[in-house]
Write a structure and sequence with these properties.
globular; alpha+beta; six-stranded antiparallel β-sheet; Beta-Lactamase; single chain
């Protein structure tokens, strides 16, 4: 019956703690904010914004250049891409994450913030 046990494991729903949330990047302040569940899973300080470099330091090294390139595209107005990368959580587990971003500008078209959704797809990508 061990085969049945393995099948039942696939019916378990993934933990949603920190799996879905929002992020906001303030361009002028270079501050990155994440929803509280995501901060907790990643081991970031509760109720505080962090520098972009702090968030970037959680990304697996080989994914950093592509993440930065795509993030720069978002800053330049091309928000058509979904960025997928791997991060290390507070328990030293690797999580596969997708982020989608949008650029919000004021009336003078000065950049104010990038914002979007953060989704941990680790359960579905393994």
């Amino acid at each position: 019956m061990s085969g049945l046990h393995r099948l039942e494991k696939h019916n378990d729903s993934p933990s949603i703690d920190g799996a879905v949330g929002y992020w906001i990047y303030n361009v002028k302040e270079d501050s990155f904010d994440l929803s509280e569940g995501i901060k907790q899973v990643l081991g970031l300080e509760h109720c505080t914004k962090c520098a972009f470099s702090t968030f970037k330091s959680l990304i697996i090294g080989t994914d950093v250049p592509q993440f930065v390139h795509n993030f720069d595209d978002w800053l330049n107005g091309d928000t058509s891409k979904i960025i997928q990368f791997k991060v290390v959580d507070i328990s030293d587990n690797i999580r596969v994450v997708q982020m989608k971003g949008r650029l919000r500008e004021d009336l003078d078209e000065d950049q104010i913030v990038l914002y979007g959704a953060y989704i941990d797809i680790s359960y579905w990508s393994n």
